[in-house]
Write a structure and sequence with these properties.
Blueprint lengths: L4 H13 L6 H16 L3 E8 L4 E8 L13 E3 L5 H4 L8 E3 L6 H11 L4 E10 L2 E11 L6 H32 L9 H11 L8 E8 L2 H8 L1 H18 L4 E7 L2 E6 L5 H15 L2 E4 L2 E4 L2 E8 L6 H17 L5 E3 L2 H22 L5 E10 L4 E13 L3 E3 L5 H6 L3 H21 L7 E5 L2 H4 L4 H12 L6 E6 H6 L1 H14 L2 E7 L16 E4 L1 H4 L6 H17 L2 E4 L5 H10 L3 E2 L8 E2 H10 L18
Parallel strand pairs: 12-13, 15-17, 17-18, 18-19, 19-20, 20-21
Antiparallel strand pairs: 1-2, 1-6, 2-3, 4-5, 5-6, 7-9, 7-12, 8-9, 10-11, 14-15, 14-22, 14-23, 15-16
Helix pairs in contact: 1-2, 1-5, 7-8, 13-15, 15-17
The structure holds ligand C2E and calcium ion (2 copies).
One calcium ion binds next to loops.
Pfam family, one: EAL
Protein name: Bifunctional diguanylate cyclase/phosphodiesterase
InterPro entries: Biofilm_reg_signaling (IPR052155), EAL_dom (IPR001633), EAL_sf (IPR035919), GAF (IPR003018), GAF-like_dom_sf (IPR029016), GGDEF_dom (IPR000160), Nucleotide_cyclase (IPR029787), Rev_trsase/Diguanyl_cyclase (IPR043128)
């Protein structure tokens, strides 16, 4: 028994209601096939209108052509170029019946070109979405055919079903789009990026998968100085440039306020990714005008590469992020490729950021001071000591200052840390003195550049000295040479205030930033500490010898005390003694020791320096 037209419509409704964005074309095609079969016609098509580009686009057809010409003459048809029949698709409101007649030759010719068939009879009904014609549905019989009113009504009902489906899919796609995109930049969002990378990194997919992590270096400044609107505009323009500058097909996402990720389609090795990143960086750094202000964008790019079936999305993103951070920390506007070293550095850094403040605040014993004795190499007399901070970390062991001083400075903890060190050192020193040792010794304390330019630094030092009853002349603050030169006026100001307080001042790492030489005379400095880089190979390296000799001559001319740092060998020590520089510290004399051991050294008063004596003239010690 043949089905009624009503049954065909009902079947179409069931089919189309179940359709989803992923299988919509197949569903539509099945409906077309069913109707073609029922009507006994030859062809059918479903077309959607694109009112933006003003064209009608083929969505589904039945039967599907074996051969589709390229370009397809019935694929996308612009209304302006369409024959009178297709042109009607733009605003069609009622069924349109076309039967072979001389006045639609153009249409017939187009069908013939596209389908290679002679003159036809067609019923075409609009897909209506309110007042708007959103597409057309057409059925064609080769030769001639009549179209009954019942048939036309049934087709119009099916067209309505198609129109509803079209609206539903569009809404779903819109939701999907919103769920996957960042509204400000129009780029993919983090979630969509993760989904993409999950797919790319699944086992069996081609690799390696390269990821570029971009970090805008100055967005905060733009927000702070020009306001958030300008910041938003900046991001939009950046996103546009990023799209334009991504020279190959790639997924581009905005994953944070000022963080973007580019994942090139297809496999890419690390070297290719790095050179791509460098080109992208150059391109992104051109200037842009926002609110009449010229802004130069600098961006740090981190590159990481993952292997499908091996690395996870979060691993890969984290590595690229770490590489970007590392690029940024070396001054920004750089490209860096992820290394395993970065991972451990980053882990330490994170950990330090997380715990440092707590450690400083709780005044627990986690931050400890070790002391490096300063010795007169002629006699071995212990002249003083330098406080060196360490962090007794619960899992990482004893951390040296280079792994956390920088972090402290970058998160504004340098002042706090510096005050803690100053207080602990003064407390220790005062205690030793109260027990009758170190009475004529000097305590040296390192000062972070950040402390030096902070307000009230001299007053804090004054307060601490008073608290522990120490005389300023027994305490020396060490400032690294590079800082002195960076902001000479601020330094001059602070040093003058410190002189009022009465403490001594040493230039640390002397010789590494030559320019301070010109200021030496005008700054209230008491001591220079020759950088250990010049001392280590002294006795073997003629260049170092010349430099040390020059420093000593200069110090002599200005009446400054000199301490040699980093004496590791007998040869270096002997050379220093020959040059007339007996004050020194270094591993040959003593390693840094804890407070108790330092007190013991002070009590002892001397460190053995037998090796420096002429053995023939010195009786052996017991
Ligand atoms: P620095 O002021 O130049 O301190 C001397 C550093 O050289 C110490 O390293 C010391 O252990 C090391 N050293 C001493 N003799 C030798 C030697 O013969 N050979 C070698 N290779 N090294 C030697 P440390 O303790 O790791 O300190 C590194 C830097 O950290 C210090 O360099 C100083 O700039 C900074 N620092 C240390 N403690 C503090 C502090 O409390 N506050 C601040 N702001 N900085 C500190
Ligand atoms: Ca020092
Ligand atoms: Ca030093």
């Amino acid at each position: 028994m043949t089905r009624s037209l009503d049954q065909v419509v009902t079947a179409a409704a069931a089919e189309l209601m179940a359709a989803t964005a992923t299988n919509v074309i197949a569903s539509c095609t099945r409906v077309l096939a069913d109707v073609v079969d029922h009507l006994g016609v030859d062809f059918s098509f479903l077309r959607h209108n694109d009112h933006v580009i003003k064209a009608t686009k083929l969505v589904a057809e039945w039967p599907i052509r074996d051969y589709i010409p390229d370009p397809d003459p019935i694929g996308v048809i612009y209304f302006s170029e369409a024959d009178p029949i297709f042109r009607q698709a733009e605003y069609l409101k009622k069924p349109l019946i076309v039967r072979p007649e001389p006045d639609n030759d153009d249409y017939q010719r187009r069908i013939e070109e596209g389908r290679g068939v002679p003159s036809v009879s067609m019923a075409c009904v609009p897909l209506l979405s309110g007042e708007i014609t959103s597409g057309i549905l057409g059925f064609i019989k080769i030769g001639d055919r009549e179209w009954t009113t019942e048939e036309q009504n049934a087709l119009q009902t099916i067209a309505t079903l198609f129109a509803q489906l079209q609206a539903r899919i569009a809404a779903e796609e819109q939701l999907q789009y919103l769920a996957e995109h960042d509204d400000l930049s129009g780029l993919l969002n983090r979630r969509a990026l993760m989904a993409h990378l999950d797919d790319r990194l699944s086992d069996g997919r081609p690799g390696p998968v390269s990821v570029l992590f971009l970090d805008l270096d100055r967005l905060k400044t733009v927000n702070d100085y020009l306001g958030h609107n300008a910041g938003d505009q900046f991001i939009k323009m950046f996103a546009e440039r990023l799209r334009a500058g991504t020279e190959r097909p790639a997924v581009i996402a905005r994953v944070g306020g000022d963080e973007f990720v580019v994942v090139p389609d297809g496999p890419m090795d690390v070297a290719t990714a790095e050179s791509f990143a460098r080109r992208l960086q150059t391109w992104l750094q051109r200037r842009v005008v926002i609110d009449g202000e010229m802004l130069a964008r600098t961006v740090s790019i981190g590159v990481a590469v993952g292997a499908p079936g091996h690395d996870t999305t979060s691993d890969l993103l984290r590595r690229a992020d770490q590489a970007a951070l590392s690029a940024k920390s070396t001054g920004g506007s750089k490209t860096a490729v992820f290394t395993t070293e970065m991972a451990s550095q980053h882990a330490i850094r994170n950990d330090i950021e997380l715990h440092l403040e707590g450690v400083i605040d709780e005044a627990s014993s986690a931050l400890v001071l070790h002391y490096l004795p300063e010795v007169d190499m002629r006699t071995g007399k212990v002249l003083g000591t330098e406080a060196l901070v360490r962090w007794r970390h619960p899992t990482r062991g004893l951390l040296l200052p280079e792994s956390f001083i920088g972090v402290a400075e970058s998160i504004n903890l340098a002042g706090k840390l510096g005050r803690l060190v100053m207080r602990s050192a003064c407390a220790d020193f005062a205690r030793w003195r109260s027990r009758g040792t170190a009475t004529d010794a000097i305590l040296r304390v390192n000062v972070s550049p950040v402390q030096l330019v902070s307000d009230g630094f001299a007053a804090t030092v004054d307060g601490t000295l008073a608290e522990f009853g120490l005389d300023g002349s027994a305490v020396c603050l060490e400032i690294t040479e590079s800082v002195v030169v960076q902001d000479i006026e601020a330094t001059r100001h602070t040093l003058a205030a410190l002189k009022e307080v009465g403490v001594r001042i040493a230039i640390d790492d002397f010789g590494t930033g030559y320019s301070v030489l010109t200021h030496l005379k005008s700054l209230p400095v008491d001591t220079v500490k020759i950088d250990r880089g010049f001392v280590r190979d002294l006795g073997a390296n003629a260049g170092d010898l010349a430099i040390v000799r020059a420093i000593l001559a200069l110090a002599d001319a200005f009446g400054l005390e000199v301490v040699a740092e980093g004496v590791e060998t007998v040869a270096a020590a002997k050379t220093l003694l020959e040059l007339g520089c007996p004050r020194a510290q270094g591993f040959m004399l003593s390693r840094p020791v804890d407070g108790a051991a330092m007190e013991a050294l002070f009590r002892q008063g001397h460190i053995a320096v037998d090796a420096l004596r002429d053995t023939s003239a010195t009786p052996g010690r017991g």
